[in-house]
Amino acid sequence: xxxxxxxxxxxxxxxxxxxxxxxxxxxxxxxxxxxxxxxxxxxxxxxxxxxxxxxxxxxxxxxxxxxxxxxxxxxxxxxxxxxxxxxxxxxxxxxxxxxxxxxxxxxxxxxxxxxxxxxxxxxxxxxxxxxxxxxxxxxxxxxxxxxx
Length: 148
What we know:
Helix content: 25-40%
Largest sheet: 4 strands, mixed
Strand content: 25-35%
Number of helices: 3
């Protein structure tokens, strides 16, 4: 089934592209979520008419994400965790914990956007990526310390 993507979709395509996808993926996910339109002539004309409005909205989202990224870039988060005698963490640092610390600092981020790359399981400083927008990625420094 051919669809016109209304926004970037990971592993599928970029905004404005006409792509072939499986009918179930289009009917059950892309179209109901507003990520795509069925590729009919009427929808192609509609997309071309709405393109400036969509581009302006996309630019506004990117600018907001860049402002948040600049704010996040200045932050240093400190997490205190229990450790064993061998100085390894009991468990690991989760995206939820990082999200709570960011929220305490006044930054609201969806925890699913926090990329821990396999988790934080050791003491020390770690760089954590936060994907705020398809074109904007912020990094925050997280320091993991042992509980006294």
